[in-house]
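re: that chain from earlier
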Amino acid sequence: MKSLEVVESLAALAQESRLAVFRLLVKRGPEGYTPTQLSDKLDVPGPTLSFHLKELQRANLVEARRDGRFLYYSPNFPRMNQLLAFLTENCCVLADKDCGPACSPPAAAAAQSKRKQA
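^ sequence. v structure.
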């Protein structure tokens, strides 16, 4: 991932409403939500939500797909994972000791493990 892409992604997520939209879409998964569903769940007016979705799309963090007359937004998981990998790729490289699991993003692995156990 190029530095400019990282900056664009982080800039898009550096706004409270956009971060909330992105986190909700990540929770929903590939199925995504329509703008109306997102607006209802986040209590964000349609025009404001549209602006935030465009910014997230511009940063390539969300994708839109048409299903009939509905538009569904979902996270771009490969891009999200590239961003996380970029942020953590040099974790502890200058440390005198191995950092062990402290350097791996545990939240996603823990969530997947919980779902498998349920």
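Residues 32 and 74 are 4 Å apart (CA to CA).
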